[in-house]
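[scheduler] slot 2 assigned
[scheduler] job type: sequence-to-structure, two independent chains
[scheduler] chain ordering preserved from manifest
[runner] begin chain α
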Amino acid sequence: MVALIRGIERLSQSLGVVGAWVMAPLILSMVYEVLARHLFDAPTFWAYEVGYMLAGTCYLCGMAYCMKERGHIRVDFIYDNIGPKGRAAVDICGFLFLMLPGAIWVTFGLQEYAWEAFESGEVSGESAWNPVIWPFRTVWVVAFAVLCLQAFAELVRSARVLLGLAREEGFEPHGVEL
């Protein structure tokens, strides 16, 4: 089970790195657009769409990584004042009853949304460039699927702490000192 969780974490880490690297072409395209618009009075017809697609990709790819690193918002003044097993119990409830059902539901809905866009050849309709939209929607599906996997890994990690198995293998939730 530890190997599975470590594999999921590597996947989340890798997707987070992809999200971080997407910032480079986003910045370059926006700088090009500003220069073209203001220095040459020749705005691009593609910059808006590239901008929202790359920014969305960056944020979506960072979701699972953020969860892995415990970067999502929580009520720390309560969470930090309970013991490791209490934190594990809170995490289990949150992941099992809130996070996973919602993320799984969204993932399957997005999968249908992306597939319909692929089958129909749907275009964005946002600019004169008008690219096909299914690649961006596929990013949504992949990002939410990895978020589901990371939530599962966190659920298992917390269950191991609650059952007292984590200490034996040096495997505890982030931020929990046993």
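[runner] end chain α
[runner] begin chain β
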Amino acid sequence: MNIKIIVNPRAGGGKAREIGFKTEQFLCDLGIEYSLDSTYRPKGATSLAKKSIDEGFDLIIAVGGDGTVNEIVNGMIGSGSKLAIIPAGTNNNFSRMLGIDPENIQEALETALGDNARAIDVGKLNEKYFLNGISIGLSAEAQDTGEVGIPVLQEKGSYMLKLFKTLSKFKAPKLLIKMDGVDLHSKTLITKIANGKYFGNGFGIVPSADIEDGMLDICVLNNMGKMKFLYSMPNILKGRHNKSYPMTTFRASNITIESPDPVKAVCDGETVDGPAPFRITVAEEKIIVKTK
């Protein structure tokens, strides 16, 4: 097995550098040969992943967060090589979806070298592939994007505080969401297009999402009064959806989102370049990921 490790040393406020060292030491102790590259620029991990595939590496170990993993997937999609994740970012939402505990690096390393693997769905936003999902609206405005080398708010309480602060100046955009023949006109507070179920700091806002069902889950929270949102927010973020607030859910494999308003979107933790329309599909290609 030819192993490539790709480390984003700035991920998680810099903790990925130390986790990268632990990954190397783990492989060295087992006498396993590997090659390591580090990425220091936007989309650098995509270029390194493409180069690794061309050089014949059949296992790529990503050391970083959701943004790092996203870049690597965009470089190896369709190759047939396997992906393993050592969570070292701020949120690590996709590794949670795989059952990999961000606090147990030893277990993540053992999983990376284990025999268990799954061929999972990959979403596609315009020309960009994604694993976890897309946030539009309030949650996108509040979310820390990019894995920069500075301290960030990581606690769930801090993330909720950021939502509070963003809400005071946020204006809900008008969206036209087209989904497999259904058109939804809505002034939305939060819109999630989910392959995985976790967003923000590990909030399971889309609990029905499944990375192997060939579908995307769409969760739309229509505009509401600020006090009602603040009251409902803990349940919304935990995926406890009920009829006491205007939350609508759909499932589709082909989605288009249009808007006359400025719209910010975040895809796997990274801000999307370019305005709406957003064309979102389940990609024909799958990615093979090491799992517990």
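[runner] end chain β
[qc] chain β: The chain has a mean pLDDT of 88.
[scheduler] slot 2 released
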